[in-house]
Amino acid sequence: MGYTPSSAVSSKAFASVAVGRPVRGEFTYLVPASLAGRLLVGQRVLVPFGRGKALAFYLGPAPEPEAGLKLKAIERPLETEPSLPEDLIALLRFAAEHYRYPLGETIRCALPPGLSSPEEEREPVPDVVQFAVAQEGADPNLLLRAPAQHAALSYLLAVGGRAPLEELDRAIPGAKEAMRRLSQRGLARLESEAVRPGVAEGFAQVRPERLTVEQETCVAKLEEALERGGFQPFLLHGVTGSGKTEVYLRAVEMALERGLGSLVLVPEIALTPQLVGRFRSRFGAAVAVLHSALKDRERLRQWRALRSGEVRIAVGVRSAVFAPVRELGVVVVDEEHDGSFKQEEKLRYHARDLAVVRAKQASALAVLGSATPSLETLENARRGRYQLLELRSRVDDRPMPSIELVDLRLTRPREAQRPAEEPPILSLPLLDAMGEVLSRGQQVILFLNRRGHSTFLLCEVCGASVRCADCDVCLTHHLSGRKVMCHYCGRHSPEPEGCPECGGPLLRLGVGTERVEAEVAFRFPMARVARLDKDAATSAERVTELLASFARRELDVLVGTQMVAKGHDFPGVTLVCVVLADTSLALPDFRASERTFQLLTQVGGRAGRGKDPGRVLVQTYNPQSEPVVRVLSHDFSGFSARELERRRALAYPPFTRMAAIRVEGAHPAQTADVARWLGQRTAARLPPSSRGVRLLGPAPAPLSRIKGKSRWQLLLKGPTHLALSGPLAEVEACLAKVPPSVRVVIDVDPGAML
Ligand code: ADP
Ligand code: ZN
Known about the structure:
Rossmann fold, 6 domains, globular
């Protein structure tokens, strides 16, 4: 690619650019004679803006503006070749429009930090990557006295034996030094490797010889689709442990054979080291792994390697949907129902939805995989927009785990020799099951979706609870550090001696993971127990280490939040206990039931993935609730049919499009005023009621105060996004008049409703 000098240069040329500032719309600039005909779409340029200069992106020629307008000229290009490929510009234009976010800012959100500020082109980074490789049979347990080496080797083994040195160094502080020592000991080595496309290098041995019959069918359909060419979206609905990952791997392999690149989105890299390891070992240096903790330089290097086509496959978290993979053939979204694909700040995009748009623009295959597809995706499949691929049974015909209920109303948790202010939490059936499994040397996962020790402290005398001064929530009691903490703003203080109101004794109510861990340790003193939640997982490295040592069976019991429910494949786990299924049921969110079903299924799916069958025990006070009943009988289709009916009746997605307008401000009265004013302005722009667009609110948000800010919200519902565009345009027009002390955010296709 280079400059194509244009022969016929008109006297004046105009350029349309997106300015990397929070301003809406595209801007027209004059093209200086020296640049006429030489600008390339996506190129970063420097433009005068306001009183200073700004980074901008060239979008294409602009029509001659009305006479009399005085235009400024583009100052100079910041690079010789555009960092942004044209197909990404198309995707980002869609995103900016759909999510009502300024185009220039949208583009900046997509670019690696090195490219999102107005700096001149840097030295190209060398095309050689150093890989850290574990020696076969190396055992980290021999390194317990050298924690850095132990961690580095554990990490390597967890990701399949091999990882770029930069990645390792990011995950494990001091890894470079540790690698030097590991090489001296002969436990690991460094390999330099030119970044280049290539199939199956290194650890190819994990590729199973034969696919299961169902996998075979899915792969054959994907192959036909690749042969046919063009955009084709698929829902890969496969029960937990059915081998979905192998289907993704084959799809990516088939694309590579045809010279096409692939994009694979996963919810969270730290929680999916196994999946990353499988991609890494199958495709070696052809894979770029993109996660949120990458260093800027590394991110830029990955971007350039993908952009140039040296690396053909990107595996990454939601922001990887913008990775500049060339000649895209396959786009995979694993665990497509996962909430982490929705970004909750700045550009509030849903990576799964953009992934499908991207596949469409690139005429590629889109494969959305899950054991519990979102109702949005399911409905697309039901209407025939997505082809359905199914994996109904587990690999090797392993049985699905048996799921049993413990009705806490009848089976009260057993009285323990514990302080009276802590009511018991583990019922007799659960304790029996755990004892049995542990005595067989097998492993247990205990799941509870609340961290901390007790989720609220209540005064036994006056009934007051200990609340956050800045948020509309109770403080959680954490035993480690003896503190109380707000899970919304992070504010924490020492554990109070007594009730802040009357000084009376405090009851510790509402169980969190910390207490479950303590209870297990108390009940099973011989068991090796660990906890995986946001408090315990202080770094990606810590998470990987915990998961790796659980996989090596150095731990017997893992207690945790939804972090334990992700796609882990631990063959030693034969018992999964849900400590309380009810925590997510009562949330004021129309997806509460769907989320509960997904969580219970996902966490239950960790049981019985090895040769021994699995068992799941679910403790609940709501045994009749729809998600609980359906999870019990592995009845996804029954659950989703009912839930879809309910959504239709109540006009919720997927039968309705929604947009939330969130209003936040430090002064309660002013915030309420702005919300009401926005409500009036929006209501005035609603199409005739026959068009089915409705405005709900303004009303205080379910969490009416966070970090000292009052929160209000308005909800727009309509049959299509187009139907919402009039009222949303009105909100956008109002933004400029909102006082600076109030923040208004438009959230299209909102995720969490709190
Ligand atoms: P899912 O993502 O559907 O829960 P996985 O992809 O993790 O399931 O597969 C479950 C287990 O089965 C993994 O350990 C995987 O290595 C193994 N597996 C997958 N496909 C095959 C196959 N064709 N033959 C043998 N083992 C397989
Ligand atoms: Zn708070």
